[in-house]
Amino acid sequence: MDRHGLLMSALSAGPELLSSLLEQAPAHLLKVRPSTGSWSIHEHAVHLPHIEQRLADRRALLLGEHEPELSSWEPGEVERSGGYLGVDLDEAMERHRKLREATLAELEELTPDQWGRTAQHAEYAHYSIFTMHRHMLLHEQLHMTRIEELSLDRQRLDLLASHANEEG
Predict the structure, then answer these.
(1) Average pLDDT per block of 10 residues along the chain, 168 residues long
(2) Taking burial as the number of CB atoms within 10 A of a residue's CB, which of 53, 119, 121, 128 is the most buried?
């Protein structure tokens, strides 16, 4: 399998792997943020279709323009303000699945030259369609790692249980 096929294979597993992680997460903890104030399981999950849409927009730009200039992605108000907590998880996961299917269908049709289309990126020395999708894969895996950590962290689970016992 060439590197494009390997990347597409890994990307295709993302939504199903994410669903399995969410199924293992205790439902009552989905929206509970860690004491550090960082994102909850829910926020990490619903962020992914948001990023998948950004990826589609950038892919269209790279395919439609010669070496477009791209800025770094900065968190928007939704990400900073806790707005992801109000997003319906089931709808977001269905959107993620559909967006990923569309991504894979588009990638399947790319020629080798299109895979290599580049942009001038404010942060990265080299940024191609291939690099962008590999970056998405790694970004998605980072968020899935955080979901797993939040789902399984014994110290966090014990602390939340003790607070529930104190209140109840």
Answers:
(1) 94 97 92 86 95 94 94 71 89 98 97 94 92 96 95 71 60
(2) 119
Q: To 5 degrees, how large is the angle CA 107–CA 113–CA 115?
A: 35
Q: What is the set of domains in the chain, with CATH numbers? A: 3-160 (1.20.120.450)
Which pTM value belongs to this model? 0.89
Phi, psi of 7, rounded to the nearest 5 degrees: -60, -45
Q: Pseudo-torsion of CA 115, 120, 121, 124, nearest 10°?
A: 70
Can you tell me whether residue 12 is helix, strand or coil?
helix
Cβ contact 69:120 at 8 Å: yes
Residue whose structure tokens are 């993620």: 96
- Cα–Cα nearest to 55, from 115, 100, 16: 100
The candidate with the shortest Cα–Cα distance to 21, out of 167, 140, 160, 164, is: 140
With contact defined as beta carbons under 8 Å apart, do 30 and 42 qualify? yes
How many angstroms separate the CA atoms of 21 and 136, rounded?
18
Residue 69 buriedness (CB in 10 A; 0-12 / 13-18 / 19+)? exposed
